[in-house]
Amino acid sequence: MKNRDSDTKSSSKYRKITGKNGEDRAAAFLESLGFNIIGRNIRSVEGEIDIVALDHGILVFVEVKAWSSYPIENLEYGINKKKQRRIIETSKYFLENHRKYSDMPIRFDVVFIQADTITHIVSAFVESV
After folding, report:
1. How many structural domains comprise the chain?
2. Is residue 50 within 8 Å of 30, Cβ to Cβ?
């Protein structure tokens, strides 16, 4: 008989490894485009931002999605309004704690990783007023 706790732990560990590998690939990809990575895994009480980077004077908050079994068409479910709000609130936390970036324009990008494909969605969402 299988132990549910060990199944949960191993699937959680697999997701962490997959996520970390995806974030590493995304960071390398963004650097190849000329981005300067200034932070990774920025956490606040609201959530987490996978990558913070500079792109030609623009501060970019990047969400990375590394999926092996879902097509890009399902991305809207992975980055729904609730997730967007969490990223936006965490970006505010980052700016409060890194004031040297507070006068820069910002944007929210998504990097979608699947097997051998990387899709970069520039300005994937904006803060709703």
Report:
1. 1
2. no
Q: For the domain that residue 104 is a member of, what is the CATH number?
A: 3.40.1350.10
Quote the domain boundaries for residue 13. Answer: 4-125
How many C-beta atoms surround the C-beta of residue 5 within 10 A? 8
Which residues, other chains included, contact 36 with Cβ-Cβ below 8 Å and sequence gap of 6+?
Answer: 53, 54, 55
* For residue 1, pLDDT beyond 70: no
The pLDDT of 6-32, averaged and rounded, is: 72
Phi-psi region of 40 (alpha: psi -120 to 50; beta: other; left: phi over 0): beta
Total count of residues recorded for the chain: 129
| Weakest-pLDDT range from 39-43, 50-54, 57-61, 123-127 | 123-127
Stretch 65-94: mean pLDDT, rounded?
A: 83
